[in-house]
Amino acid sequence: MNLEDPALIDRSDPAAYIAEAAEAYRNWGRWGEDDRLGTLNLIGDAERARAAALVREGRVLSLAQSFDMDGPQRGWRRRTNPVHTMLDTGTDAERGTQGFPHGIGGADDVIAMPLQCSTQWDGLGHIFDRGMAWNGRRAGDVVTSDGDLVTGIEHTADRIVGRGVLLDLGAHLRPQTGELEDGYAITSADLDACIAAQSGTGASSAVGRGDLLLVRTGRLSRARREGWGEYAGGPSAGLSVTTAGWLRSRDVAAVATDTWGFEVRPNEFDVAFQPLHQIAIPNMGLTIGEMWDLDALAQACRERGRWEFLLVAPPLPITGAVGSPVNPLAIL
Question: Which residues of the chain fall below pLDDT 50?
């Protein structure tokens, strides 16, 4: 089976494609049978030191969407937007109801939210392939009602710092609008062409071992202009399932997009749900980020003619979590 040509996909048989791609790109055992990190193993101290040397101006850009009730979630799989509640307020302090001595007062708050309701990382326990989790473990032995007992997101808390590379596919493929249309499947050829177009005489768009790849489609830009609509779970441009081999051959450490689902939606089969996730997370051990805000970064990179930067994007070390909110920082 040809795994790299979208035109040759048998749309009626996702199971066969997924099974063959999983076998072809699988990283099980590559970093030992006890591995918890997958492709994040590709970022070491030397890679982080080289990434830190990319900082020239000290300008910092947050790549996070807001975490508030005006978010994209519409209840899919019981996902809601964050609910922020004040426990103590300035009003309480003014009225002296807090019980503190000598006039001191304070404010306190709490937030309740699904861990993947806004800008976030998918952990390695988030997706399974035919009952198997990352590195060939049984899914039920990894994630139980107590959480992810093996590959919990907390194990990556000091790992996701490295060389970030932005590929602005929206601007490259649709220069008039900067936004790809829903359902557009970004191919390996598209990724290579974007690298070539952005690089010019330099190599700041090159993607290789240990890099943190960011892909901008322009989907968030449209949601900002038109309203959330079906941003969370609906149609969107995204990576083609056939890019799994491209990501594997370049040894990308992690990849994130400005879309809800990372891969193209609707998916590239007649009946399917997130086949690239099924190949990438449990088989390749690839950490995936979704709903990142890449618009300001794209503008800053374009102005400088430089598409690489230090990316600092650790998750919250929530014990046993299969995903985490994140406030990614690109430092130029």
Answer: none
117 to each of 74, 260, 280, 324, how far by Cα in Å?
A: 10, 9, 21, 9
pLDDT at 201: 58
Cα-based distances in Å from 43 to 40, 51, 162, 166, 297: 6, 10, 7, 17, 22
Q: Which fold has domain 6-75+115-331?
A: Glucose Oxidase; domain 1 (3.50.30)
3-state secondary structure of 290: strand
Q: How many CB atoms lie within 10 A of CB 65?
A: 21
List, for residues 30-48, the tens digit of each pLDDT value. 999 999 999 999 999 999 9
* Interatomic CA distance for residues 130 and 19, integer angstroms: 9
CA distance 127 to 83: 26
Structure tokens at 97: 């109801």
8-state DSSP, 178: S
Alpha-carbon distance values, 93 to 88, 100, 110 (Å): 8, 9, 18
Structure tokens at 207: 């993607």
Neighbours of 109 (CB within 10 A): 10
CA distances from 100 to 43, 91, 95, 96, 110 (A): 48, 14, 11, 8, 20
CB-based burial of residue 90 (10 Å sphere; 0-12 exposed, 13-18 middle, 19+ buried)?
Answer: exposed
Looking at the chain, the domain(s) classified CATH 3.50.30.50 span 6-75+115-331
Query: Residue 159 burial by CB count (10 A; 0-12/13-18/19+): exposed, middle or buried?
Result: buried
CA distances from 119 to 122, 142, 235, 307 (A): 10, 24, 18, 21
Q: Say how many Å lie between the first and final Cα of the chain, rounded.
A: 43
- Is the pTM for the entire model greater than 0.90? yes
